[in-house]
Predict the 3D structure of the following.
Amino acid sequence: MTIFKTLCPQGRRLSLVAVCLLSVWPPLSAQTAKELMADACYNEAHQREQNALWASQVQRRTADHVYLEEEIETVEGPVHRLISVDGHEPSPSERKQNDDQLRDLMQNPKARLAAQMNREADEKKFGELIRVMPDVFLYEDQGNRGAWRSLRFIRIQHSLLRHMRRLCCTR
């Protein structure tokens, strides 16, 4: 995980996506770790092309706090609603700040446009990362763990590290 954080700010998202992708993949023992990751990335890329809407709970860790949010995908992009902070109900000031952000997003077309432009730039980078992940990262197949297939990240292929930095760290 620290390699992802050092590589770029999207590292947390990459590792989360890798875990999510692999957790829904059915166990096929004849596939190598690289093939499993390639198939999972292919499926994720095609799922993104379908523009499916979804809702989920997202856990974020920042500044020694753990935030649990409900994330709802809308036609205009995701909306986040604060559920808890460090396992407790949000304070009135945290709730007000979240409500104000949602209200601003709803009532301010410029805020929506800015958020949409940032999202589109992130999605473009994320799509490129998904495309190169099977070739840039090395994985080890750890077999089945219950109903899930587990891969462990081993290392980055250094010959492709410059390409990854260009994708992750430029805006």
